[in-house]
Amino acid sequence: MMSATALRLHSSTASRSGRFQPGALIAGRYQIIGLLGKGGMGEVYRANDLTLDQQVALKFLPEEMSSNSAMLGRFHGEVRIARQVSHTNVCRVYDIGEVDGHLFLSMEYVDGEDLGSLLRRIGRLPADKATEFARKICAGLAAAHNTGVLHRDLKPANIMIDGQGRVVIMDFGLAAVSDQVQGMEIRAGTPAYMSPEQLAGLEVTVRSDIYALGLVMYEMYTGKRPFECESMAELMRLQHQSQAPSILTTAKDVDPLVEKVIARCLSPDAKSRPASALAVAAALPGGDPLAAALAAGETPSPELVAASGANAGMRPRWAIACGVAVLFGLAAMLLLGPWVRVTGVAPLELPPEALTLKAREYAQSFGYTQKPADSENGFIYDNDYLSHLTNNDKSAGRWSRLSLPTPPAIVFWYRQSPRYLEQMGNNRGVISPADPPENISGMLSMQLDPRGRLIAFTAVPPQVETAPAPSAPVDWKPLLAAAGLDTSQLKDAEPQWTPPSMADTRAAWTGTWPGQRDVSLRVEAAAWRGKPVYFDLIGPWTRPARMQARALSVQEKAALYILLFFAVVALLGAALLARYNMRRGRGDQRGAIRIAAFAFLLELFIWVLRGHHVPTAGEVGELFQAISLALLIAAALWVGYMALEPYVRRHWPQALVSWSRLVAGGWRDPLVGRDILIGVVAGLFWAVIWAGSIVVNVAKAGPATTALLSSLSGGRQTVATALAVLPGSLIQLFVCFLMLFVARLLLRREWLAAVAYIALFTALGLTTSTTPLFDAPVAIVLWTTIYLAISRFGFIAFVTAIYVNTLFVLLPVTGDFSVWYSGISVFVVLLVASIAAFGAHTALAGRSLIQDELL
Fold it and tell me: Is 153 a catalytic residue?
């Protein structure tokens, strides 16, 4: 192969015996300046490209190659791939041309001196300069290997150093495609820089170039070749039987780690050498292997990502600032809590234990004295009433009605049964007012307002009566008294609402809601054999649920269809990406399996906490159903991780540094702690923005109904809700990154992708907004900060932020510690503070907050 020594600047050394004389015009475009050199692979000229007014190098191939169609076809294919290598440390190949039957290659002209000449002139390079050159050679070689091109003749004479100190690998124009080197072509190159397998004519691979890289590095650090011999046979013997002399005997200033790296590169066994030039760069002392990987256009491995980046988490002053921000954020959420949610506005006077006791007392007074085998209770929103206030009540003080005892915006429900309650739907073992269906004799259910007054009651009469009793007069007073109604204010009316079960007596009254004389009330009741089986307080908003489903608004329908579309697209897209990455061995399978296993075990634990467990055979089915759902969620996270992690690792590896360390088990790593602490701060910031926007706009849009009322049913449900937020945060992470990936893929530019990403999620949020002009700027600020959190700090900070923000959105946190559910607020505050404290402690890595900062 033609030596790149000829490509130095000094044209005075050029021979005059070339095919073309200075001044000759080639292909009507290139004007010859002089012959730079000639050898077995042709002649190299320095020329001026008249079209672009820049100097180039023209390499004319041997005539026998130009006339060999097979070699010519191979050459075109090799150059076609070599042109894809665009890297600052690789001599760029431009094009192929032909003039008068002479085939030539136009390529970058490098103004400088080749490494071989430099080493002959000065001996060896200083250790730091040699390491700098080694990294640049590795970056250029990795860029070529990434496109499938092998050099096959890497040596100091083929490495140029230009006037600015740029290191450029030459002669890639005549390199080979990695899987097409066969026969005698395996031995093409300079024997002194060939690998053992190349000298033996066995094969030439990426690791063959790695061997040559080791030889070049040895020569840079020592100024000598590792194997000095007179014949090829002796060279092959030395390669297999002798180790290269220690570089430390010649260069005392070289890091011992360098010697280990070179020794690995010069291993006779190709499998024992580093797998890539990038791995060689990563093993060299100092430097930034992650930056080297990106510079080479290669996707860094998860191990390389985890090993890169800072090892210190956070300076004490920043940890103190974040701690103060956390305290202010927690205080703000406690202060805003009573004004943000319906749970803070609507009166919740009695805890579920007291309401359950009242419900059982009512059942006894209604004639249902049999002790139940099972019971369950909880809180629900009266969505029909809330929708009525939003869509039909246009009065200025409409939302102040929520603070009145009746009609209640939040309803307590209670169910009891002579058999164990076993949910029938796919509700993860959770009993609801409608599941299981009320179809067993002796079942009864009722709804109470938060003060314990009756709102609704149903009971299932006996299925079989062996001795039917005649219908008896019904005393409705216990039901009306339980509802807190004054019978003197009610008028008899004709029944309109039919009971859900058999009844032989029906009654109805009309009046107004207690405390709200301007709101009409209808009371419906029914009985069977003198015992009440149905009672209901009906407002103008009450929807006959058995006759009509809840009507969705246009905005809600749009949001539903948009979410459905994106869910299908995201699932299919993630599956295809995961399959693509799996087939090419690009995904971090260890990390994906660990995340999936964590999600699976977490989902099962949530089911244990949240489910209504009974000692029946149906519990086995519930267990398998829980396992199925846990497997589904784990599989979705596995697919999402395998789909997106390689892309993020290639384009935003900084976002995965702390995440890769955490997945590898480094949960005590300072960088992990730093990102957790920053995530807590960001999550509280988002929560404060959300709460503040609701408080400012509460007169128009009303308080939020985002709080999950199941958390009011006790500590077990509160913990289950807090744990359930975590897999949801992971899913949000992958959805957000998938959308960002699609935007980046379609728009090509990162800033355009960022704008599209923010605009998309802002638009999705506005589909259900009742005050879009107010919510739009808030959403833009929110999603802009979310994008910054993703792009700047990465996975851990984003997941932590989403988790903390969602805790405050879904749990009824309040600063009013006189309410019976204030324990939830204490739990959330302690949980978030503990996460922040762990992050700060881990980020500081044992440093003192005061002393170390002062020092």
Answer: yes
Burial letters 562-577, b for 16+ CB under 10 A, else e: eeeebeeebeebbeeb
Amino acid at 781: V
Q: State the pLDDT at residue 291.
A: 63
Residues 703, 694 contacting (CB under 8 angstroms): yes
Q: Is 269 helix (H, G, I), strand (E, B) or coil?
A: coil
Instruction: Estimate the crossing angle of helix 618-651 against helix 715-747, to 10 degrees.
Output: 40
Pairing of strands 444-448, 454-459: antiparallel
Q: What is the DSSP letter of 432?
A: B
CA distance 22 to 349: 100
Given 153, 382, 536, 588, the catalytic residue? 153
Cβ 477 vs Cβ 487: under 8 Å: yes
| pTM of the predicted structure, to 2 decimals | 0.70
What angle in degrees, to the nearest 10, is found between the helix axes of 670-701 and 822-844? Answer: 150
pLDDT digits (tens, 9 = 90+) for 669-710: 888 999 999 999 999 999 999 998 888 888 788 898 999 999
Residue 21, classified by CB atoms within 10 Å of its CB into exposed (0-12), middle (13-18) or buried (19+), is exposed
For residue 122, with 0-12 CB atoms within 10 Å meaning exposed, 13-18 middle and 19 or more buried, which class applies? exposed
Q: How far is CA 381 from CA 355, 519, 707, 717, in A?
A: 16, 19, 10, 17
For residue 462, the number of C-alpha atoms closer than 13 Å in the C-beta half-sphere is 11
Which residues contact residue 139 at a Cβ distance below 8 angstroms, ignoring those fewer than 6 apart? 87, 89, 277, 278, 281, 292, 295, 296
Q: Round to whole Å and give the CA distance between 601 and 734.
A: 20
For the segment 144-200, what is each residue's pLDDT rounded down to a tens digit? 887 778 887 889 988 999 888 889 988 764 444 444 444 444 445 578 888 888 887
3-state secondary structure of 164: coil
Structure tokens at 260: 């280990």
Backbone φ and ψ of 161, nearest 5°: -120, 115
Is residue 410 within 8 A of residue 389, CB to CB? The reply is no
3-state secondary structure at position 707: coil
